[in-house]
Specification:
single chain
């Protein structure tokens, strides 16, 4: 096997990226404090052509050197928007016809492997603070909650890892069928 050269990957330019069909998914970061996590979410969002990233509360916004360090420029290709309050982002998404799902461990959550998606719908997923998770007030506004099953001694995953898993699953179900 031979590793492919960067020129063989047929990547789109930033300008072309703006015009390609996007995954009908918005990723919302609720009070995420690590700039490296923010950058990583941008990079995963670029990889799977996510429609937008919404940055809320204390979550830092581009331009920022620490975000850029992990985003590697994806903060320039992926559309983003800032909201002082995550609740305002949720209200806007719902008004725009999105089904809004928190990624959180709650009573009656849907396990990721049981998640079903309607290709005719638009979705938003909310990922929370590294310590506190998604704010309860925000969870209360959501249409449902998705939980990633875990089998070890820890009860949570890094927010950027969680984002990557969820974004891939949405891409798999909505783009790859």
């Amino acid at each position: 096997m031979r590793k492919l050269k960067i020129t063989e990957l047929n990547r789109v330019s930033k300008e072309e990226f703006k015009n390609i069909d996007k995954l009908p998914l918005v990723v919302v970061l609720d009070e995420v404090r690590s700039l490296y996590n923010v950058g990583s979410v941008f990079r995963s969002s670029d990889a799977f052509a996510v429609s937008a990233v919404y940055l809320c509360g204390i979550t830092a916004v581009p331009p920022n050197a620490e975000i850029h360090k992990t985003a590697l420029g994806a903060e320039d290709s992926v559309d983003w928007k800032y909201f002082k309050h995550t609740q305002d982002a949720v209200n806007e998404l719902k008004a725009d016809g999105y089904e809004v799902l928190a990624i959180e461990q709650v009573e009656h959550s849907t396990m990721l492997q049981n998640m079903t998606l309607d290709p005719q719908k638009k979705y938003a997923i909310i990922l929370g603070n590294e310590v506190k998770g998604v704010q309860q007030e925000v969870v209360d506004m959501c249409d449902g909650c998705i939980e990633i099953p875990q089998f070890g001694t820890k009860h949570s995953l890094n927010v950027s890892v969680t984002a990557g898993i969820l974004i891939w699953e949405f891409a798999r179900l909505l783009k790859l069928g």
